[in-house]
Amino acid sequence: MKNTCKWIGLLSIAVTFILPLAFFIEQISLAAMKQGLLIATLVWFGTSVFWIGTKVPEQPKGDPIL
Amino acid sequence: MPQKSKPIESPVVEEFESTPVPERAQKGAKAFWGMYAGEHAAGTEFMIGPLFLLAGVSLQNIFWGLLLGNFLAVLSWRFICAPIATKARLTLYCHLEKIAGKDLVKVYNFANGVLFCFLAGAMITVSATAVGIPFNLEMPAFDAIYPNSASFIMIVVAVGVVISAVAGIGYNAVSRFANIAAPWMVLVFLGCGIVALKQLGVDSWAGLNAIWTESISFAQGGEVTTSMGFLEVVLFAWFCNAAMHVGMSDLSVFRYAKKASSGWATAGGMYVGHYMAWIAAALMLAAQIKLTQSADPVPGPMAFNVVGIAGIICVVVAGWTTANPTIYRAGLAFQAMLPGTSRLSMTLLAGGVATTAAIFPAFAFKLLGFVGLYGTILAPMGAVIFADWYLSKRIGVTPFHAEASGCGVNKSVLFAWLIPVTVSLYFIFAQGVTTWYFVLPAWLACGVLFLVFSRLRGTPQSSVKKGYLA
Fold this sequence. Notes:
- The complex is a heterodimer.
- Chain A has helices at 2-24, 30-48.
- By secondary structure, chain A is mostly helical.
- Chain A has one domain.
- The model of chain A has no long low-confidence stretch (mean pLDDT 86).
- In chain B, helix 13 (309-337) packs across helix 14.
- Chain B is globular.
- In chain B, 70% of the residues lie in helices and 0% in strands.
- The longest helix of chain B has 30 residues, at 59-88.
- Chain B is mostly helical.
- Chain B folds into two domains: 27-371, Hydantoin permease; 379-470, no CATH class.
- The N and C termini of chain B lie far apart (49 Å).
- Classes of the chains: A mainly alpha, B mainly alpha.
- Chains A and B meet through helix 1 and helix 2 of A and helix 5, helix 7 and helix 13 of B.
């Protein structure tokens, strides 16, 4: 399950990278790119939660990030 | 992209608050590359990039100025902050307490907390501009100081309440969510830039330059004037995070690094977040000007125009994941200043101040100036740490004076900090001089004054007995 989610997640992140490039070289329309990005976004958040690290700091250190 | 089987996580864990980090807890450079690259793609990048265009910065100055300024920032982390962090292995506050004294650190911490609130406010404003899109919210204009509608106030308050409540309840969930969102956010930033470039319809550098100049002209009502040249862009990029590198706030991060060379990892944050993301955001505004004839640098609509709903999600997430820990930190700072209060109440107080600031869009739209002010006030304390670490013994000054003498306020530090900061604030507010000119002079002056005042004060007998000058 974890492995499957990981590969699907990685695929979605690759799609997030590829879609704007595909629009840039005029392979897909703006609307299709936007729709594809939304789907890739949902897939990424839906799958990454199962495999991206659960160890987090109790509280932040340092200054705000700009 | 995340590493093959390594979770993306901060190399910083909540341990060793007042003791040096032991060898078993130290981490290699790899952990820091991912952390910096992810954390510096924040909500404020959506705001800063477009502000360059509105300030009339030429395209060449953006590309070359940011390249150099970010490099100087990386060098500052690598050669000023990381070497001390990997030798002392203490947090900023613990290190500063040994030099400046417990009570003075509380004052510094409080100043930090207040400034954090305004930064968090700008991030809440950024998120609110995206949340408002489905409600057809009329966005405030660039020159707006006050909110433009009751709806805007309501959405800002709603976003602020949610962020503050989450910060008050706990930090873990948001931190994990931020880790998950980081690689995706970086790619959405990149995608925004690519799509905006296509929407601009240019196929050469000359074409891009021409349309960039046209965009500046449109935004400035037919004129092309600039308030930022090459030097200003370099200084801004260098000192945007001055509090963290020359200001030594990232001692808290790099105390976990095995070697000072981990300081190079900050290049991941600078060139992803403060180069690619700023340029991408600036191109988004240029594309918006071309397509809709609107020069308002409102992040939500800009991102929606180029990448649709994913852009709205990105703006909300980028603002939320950075505003949340900022409010949390401000709450901790207030709590340290007011002993006996609960962390929850102080976090909610910080959230309230941040939300109030967020209602006024001017705080977000004047972010370039505010960032310089933030560095001018906080970074000089880093010079005290630097001078104390490298120079104090050489000129016969007791290092870690407060610890050696047991004083609550080291007056040498207090006046070395207050004098350059007060002079800088006079020029900034009374004379209207740009803020980012003052970070370096204030830092240098603070370090020199600290050594001079410490030398004049003399050496306490207790420090000789304890061997601080050995």
